[in-house]
Specification:
The protein is an alpha+beta fold and 480 residues long. The protein contains 17 helices and eleven strands. The relative contact order is 0.11.
């Protein structure tokens, strides 16, 4: 304690304690280089703001620039395609389990008839798996996606609702209010109660940027899904996946265009003709007019005395490949994918490096699948489906559970990886059912198909290696 601290403490102990706490905090900051103040950190803007204070004002610009990159930049488009196809692929599939076999068959009949047709889509364009891909693509490109439950009165539908996929602009931010009579508030078009729970969404009837005067309605939260990747606690809306790489990718596109234009301009000048004759220089000599203006294949030209020809040599793009690779590696990291998946460059990949990179990328894919798409989209769709089907008197009220299976991960070397999976099952390190699910198949369905195949083989007296019960015994040694 300093003399000033003691003097202040004599009159105000609270201010004395505050001064001591601030001094201790400053001393702790000085122990971290990243928290220090000096030449190296000058200009480093770091704000102590909430997630919504940070991304709220920036969401419109981030979405617009992300979409512009996808429209006009092949690497951005490839990144979004890779994220979508690997996360959803041919679809995240549902396995229905019910205690009553009759009820299970009924659920399966209604579910697959609804999900694998366009009856589930309010626009009548996509089936459930196509909607999964659209939702995932919208999240990756625009940051978040809205799915609205639409109750329909159509006697031709066994399930009494459809789903409408909406872009995040449908959230009416003009409805924001810092306080409501019940103690709640509205932020970024989402209404919260006094405890911070979501109670409603304020959604435009049409896209607000279309040429219509658009109204918005208050929709209960139970009828809306708002799916996005949560990066910080309390975050209301998501940001596009490539946000951290957007500026770098935009600058790299300008650099590529400049390099291309440089080579293009240099290649336009095929040859330069030099002559010291005053008449030729002024363009009045007869020889100047007889020289050709274009160079053609197999051409032989006799030049007048004193004329020389110098052919153009386009400048080499030195270091371009290594520089581009480093930039695109950073861009791939920003999107959460691998450099090879972004560029298709497999020149320096062997089995080990390819497998390591693919496994690391697959962890990101599993995070998007099991922490976002399945719990916040697929599971909610199932809840809506069960309720909607019961409203439509299509399903019996039996206890059922749903299990979701993500698309299988393609193997880099099927022979080596299949042997590894087989050893894990034989040594009890994993179950057969879990392995089958990891390959994107339904264990019960596959087991049933295998059983039916074996019965078929027996009826046709076929002996195949896939059925170890029918071993061919080698009797040659016994005969000897």
């Amino acid at each position: 304690m300093t003399f000033i601290d003691k003097a202040i403490g004599f009159f105000s102990p609270e201010r004395e304690l505050k001064r001591i706490r601030v001094r201790l905090a400053v001393n702790e900051m000085r122990k971290y280089d990243a928290a220090s103040s000096g030449r190296r950190t000058k200009g480093w803007q770091s704000l102590s703001s909430s997630a919504n204070t940070e991304n709220g004002p920036a969401l419109v610009a981030l979405r617009n620039r992300s979409r512009d990159l996808v429209r006009n930049n092949p690497y951005a488009k490839k990144a979004i395609d890779v994220i979508t196809t690997n996360t959803v692929g041919t679809g995240i599939r549902l396995t229905i389990n019910a205690k009553d076999e009759t009820a299970q068959k009924k659920y399966e009949e209604v579910w697959f008839g609804w999900a694998e047709s366009t009856q589930c889509d309010f626009t009548g364009m996509l089936n459930f798996y196509g909607m999964q891909a659209l939702v995932m693509r919208t999240i990756a490109e625009s940051g978040s996606c809205l799915i609205r439950k639409r109750v329909v009165n159509n006697t031709n539908l066994k399930v009494a609702f459809q789903m409408q996929v909406l872009e995040p602009e449908y959230l009416a931010t003009e409805a924001d209010k810092p306080s409501l009579p019940d103690g709640g508030y509205i932020m970024q078009g989402v209404e919260f109660d006094k405890n911070g729970s979501r109670v409603a969404y304020h959604i435009h009837e049409r896209h607000p940027n279309e040429q219509f005067q658009v109204k918005y309605n208050r929709i209960p939260a139970a009828d809306v899904m708002h799916v996005y990747k949560i990066d910080r606690p309390g975050q209301i809306s998501g940001v596009p996946f490539g946000t951290s790489a957007a500026l770098k990718l935009h600058d790299f596109a300008d650099y590529e265009d400049a390099q291309l234009m440089r080579q293009k301009v240099a290649a336009c000048f095929a040859a330069f003709i030099q002559d010291q004759s005053p008449d030729a220089i002024n363009g009045t000599g007869a020889a100047a007019s007889t020289l050709p203006e274009r160079v053609e294949p197999g051409m032989i030209e006799h030049l007048p005395a004193g004329k020389t020809v110098t052919f153009g040599t386009p400048p080499a793009a030195e270091g371009y490949e290594s520089y581009a690779k480093k930039i695109l590696q950073g861009v791939a990291s920003g999107y959460g994918i691998t450099y090879e998946a972004l560029t298709g460059d497999l020149g320096n990949v062997n089995f080990s490096s390819g497998r390591m990179g693919w496994l690391e990328f697959h962890k990101m894919v599993e995070d998007w699948q099991y922490n976002m798409m399945i719990p916040r989209f697929c599971a909610v769709v199932w809840e809506w489906f069960v309720a909607g089907a019961k409203i439509g008197s299509a399903l019996p009220g039996k206890e059922v559970t749903a299990e979701w299976t993500a698309p299988r991960r393609e193997m880099i070397d099927p022979v080596k990886e299949s042997k590894g999976l087989s050893l894990q099952i034989r040594n009890g390190l994993t179950s057969w059912s879990e392995t089958i699910r990891s390959l994107g198949s339904d264990p019960k369905k596959l087991a049933k198909e295998i059983s039916e195949d074996f019965k078929l083989f027996e009826n046709l007296s076929l002996i195949l290696d896939c059925d170890p019960r029918n071993k061919i015994v080698d009797t040659s040694s016994k005969a000897e």
